[in-house]
Amino acid sequence: MLNQILAKFKEEISNINEKKALNDLKLSYLGKSGIITLQFKKIVELNVENRKEYSSRVNLVKTEIETLIAAKLAKIQKQEMVTLLDSEKVDVTLPSRKKFYGSIHPISQVTEELLSIFSMFNLTAVEGPNIENDWYNFSALNIGSNHAARQMHDTFYLNNSDTSLLRTHTSTIQIRAMEQQKPPIYLVAPGRVYRSDFDSTHTPMFHQIEGLIVDKNIHMGHLKHIIINFIKMFFERQDIEIMFRPSFFPFTEPSAEVDIKCWINNKWLEVLGCGIVHPNVLRNVNIDPDEYQGLAFGLGVERLAMLKYGITDLRKFFENDQRWLQHYSFSAFNIPTILHGLSK
User: Fold this and answer.
1) Residue ranges of the domains in the chain?
2) pLDDT means over runs of 10, the chain (344 residues)
């Protein structure tokens, strides 16, 4: 009887290829009313002498059925996985989706170009707060209380305050650096600056980089050497004509503005201001001007970007026009270096 049950089970399971059918077969043999379960219930009807032997035989058949069910389930699951993988197979011969890469904004690119050049002169980039007070933005820089730059139409003052303001230049970083460390000092100060002005060549916020060297025996020759070589490296032209014009800045004496001659129309174009640090500025940060001298220069990042890359309107830098950015942006893989060329 048990042999017939087992033979019938093997025949039925051999024709099953789905989990549901296998589960139904399992219930029909091992469920509460299953064939094998009924065989266990018959044991009590047997003589005491036959119960043990018959019980052992039923258990063996049950174990074999469970083993066959487990094996069949594993086979069905394997086949289902193969079918699933076949349905999700990727055809590697198909063309891939086009990749869209981000790009570098011209301000970021030119800033990196400038810092790369200034690093050649051992100038380290230092940053500082955008919100400043009267001392760091004006007084420490020898800008008197009646200077025009202090007026409301030039400077953004905060909460009707006479002292808290948005910095108008990154010279504030130079003052903080001279307060915090002793000479020699070699640094450049990049960052945003703010002035109340808005037209095709001015915006209320723009980017500036200022340089400062404070050391013994610093003179105008050092300043000219840095400026001339910097301009030639930035514009990547050794034949560029450079002119230093006498000028006035409260924080430098002597002071000069630097022009370059356009190689297209032969007009002179202003690119930056510079000079020897005024003795009063050094005294304001407790540096003896008889022992140490300083040179300083300042330039607008956007202005240099416009001159080098033919950008005509300063306001376009901040309008987020995708068409403009696509035209003037740089590859994310274009890292400015002196050895391999600043721009590609």
Assistant:
1) 1-88, 104-331
2) 78 86 84 79 72 77 84 88 83 78 90 94 95 92 76 74 87 96 96 82 87 97 97 93 95 96 87 96 96 97 92 89 89 63 51
Identify which of 257, 272, 251, 271 has the alpha carbon closest to the alpha carbon of residue 178: 251
- What residue numbers does the annotated binding site cover? 253
- What whole-number distance in Å separates Cα of residue 53 and Cα of residue 32? 23
d(CA 257, CA 271): 8
CB 113 within 8 A of CB 342: yes
- Mention the CATH class of domain 104-331: alpha beta
CA distances from 139 to 163, 167, 286, 292, 297 (A): 11, 13, 14, 21, 19
Which amino acids are annotated as binding site for Mg(2+), given as ranges? 253
SS (H, E, C) the chain: CHHHHHHHHHHHHHCCCCHHHHHHHHHHHHCCCCHHHHHHHHHHHCCHHHHHHHHHHHHHHHHHHHHHHHHHHHHHHHHHHHHHHHHCCCCCCCCCCCCCCCEECHHHHHHHHHHHHHHCCCCEECCCCCEECHHHHCHHHCCCCCCHHHCCCCCCECCCCCCCEECCCCHHHHHHHHHHCCCCEEEEEEEEEECCCCECCECCEEEEEEEEEEECCCCHHHHHHHHHHHHHHHHCCCCCCEEEEEEEECCEEEEEEEEEECCCCCCEEEEEEEEEECHHHHHHCCCCCCCCEEEEEEEEHHHHHHHHHCCCCHHHHHCCCHHHHHHHCEECCCCCECCCECCC
Query: Rounded to an integer, what distance in angstroms lies between the CA atom of residue 93 and that of residue 116?
Result: 44
Distance CA 221, CA 329 (A): 36
What pTM, to 2 d.p., does this model score? Answer: 0.68
